[in-house]
Amino acid sequence: MTSGIPLRDDFDGFALRALAKGTKDAAQARRLLALAEIYDGHSRSDAARIGGVTLQIVRDWVIRFNARGPSGLINGKAPGNQGKLSDVHRQALAKIVESGPVPAVHGVVRWRRKDLVQWLFQEYRISVDETTIGRELKALGFAKLSARPRHYAQNEGDLESFKKSSPPHWQQSKAGSRRTSRLSSGGPTKLG
């Protein structure tokens, strides 16, 4: 049987237990306690049992701990895919949106996301989705504007005649009017 990857020698089991006690990250504490077992001379199988994982995962913890110390045992966020648009592309996109389309050149009178997708492909041969363009425009500080729809035959002068102008049918009760009406009628009446 081969021996495992040795742990770095600037820590010991006591130090790792102290770090595990002071951390707020439960996953890091569990990993530190598992590695403390290895420092104390126990087997890696015991460390895997304490950590609740397999031997391969304990090996991964040892590699991360040796490379970055106790901070290497904290769960990190995955980097994700690299974006298709560089800063040069974003600046060109912002410039063309600010200047607006030229109908004779671009064939549109206002920019839509799908028009900008087509423009990016024609200029830079970059294929992106409309949602990506929307997300990039929002990150650049642009907001989506849409005009309120209006009927083509709408007349501004006729709008006033359709607005509500009649007074309301209800009126506010006078103070104490409800109480006086009950007393004058002889009390509540039974409906039968």
UniProtKB/TrEMBL annotation:
InterPro entries: Homeodomain-like_sf, Winged_HTH_dom
Region (Disordered): 153-192
Signal sequence extent: none
Low complexity composition-biased segments: 182-192
Pfam families: HTH_29 (PF13551), HTH_33 (PF13592)
All copies of domain Winged helix-turn helix, residue ranges: 108-164
Protein name listed in UniProt: Transposase
Organism: Rhizobium esperanzae
Lineage: Bacteria, Pseudomonadati, Pseudomonadota, Alphaproteobacteria, Hyphomicrobiales
